[in-house]
Specification:
Layout lengths: L1 H9 L9 E7 L2 E4 L15 E3 L14 H10 L5 E5 L2 H8 L4 E2 L12 E2 L1 E2 L8 H10 L4 E4 L3 E6 L2 H28 L3 H9 L8
Parallel strand pairs: 7-8
Antiparallel strand pairs: 1-2, 1-4, 2-3, 4-9, 5-6, 8-9
Helix pairs in contact: 2-4, 3-5
Bound molecules: zinc ion (ZN).
The site of zinc ion has 5 residues, from loops.
Amino acid sequence: MVEIGRRLELKGLIVAAEGNLSVRLGGHAFLVTPAGVGKGALRPRDLLVVDRAGRCAAGRPTSEWPLHRALYDARPDVGAVCHAHPPWATAFSVAGRDLDGSLLTETEAQLPRVPLAARAQPGTEEVPAAVVPWIRGHDAVLLGSHGVVAVGPDLETAFARLETVERLAQVTLLAEVAAGRSGLCPADLQALLRSGGQLPDP
Ligand SMILES: [Zn+2]
C-alpha cells in the first residue's frame, strides 16, 4: 500500500492528501490509508486497521471509508479499493461524460465501459449510494465532478485499473482533438482518400 501510494503521486494521479486505498484483510478487518496524509510519503506505521464500522485503535481513517465499505459489501470478490483524482478522467467526470472502453483494443475486454456515477458530497453516504449501483457490473467508476474509484482482487490490480482508466480518458480526448482538427467526419475522410485529395462538392 505504501508503494501504491507512492506511484499514485509519482504518476500525477493525486496531489496533496488526495486519494485513499484499502485492502480486505479477512473477517471484518481492513487495512486503510489515514485521513489527511499525503499518500506519496506514507510509512507502514501510518496505515490503519479498521473494522467494518471504520473504528480503529488509534488515528483517523480516510473520510471515504463509507464508500470503501459499501464496495466490499456489494462485491464479495473485491479485495482492494483504489480511489484517486487523475486529471484526465476527472475532467470527463466534471463534463458529465462516461468513458467508452471499446475505443481501445486494450480496454474493450477488461473495461468496456467506465460509467459515471451521480455527483455526491465527498465523505458522505451520498457517495456509496451513487456508486454501488454501477460497481456491481463494472470494475471502475467515474465519480461525478470528483475522480475515479477502481476495485480488484488485490491492490495492484485495482491500481492498474485506475491507471488504465486515466489512459483511456487521455487517449479519448486526444483522439477527439485529432479528429476535430481534420474537420471531417469518417465518411468524408474516406471519400477524400478515395478521390486522391478532391472532395466532391457538398
Ligand atoms: Zn476523492
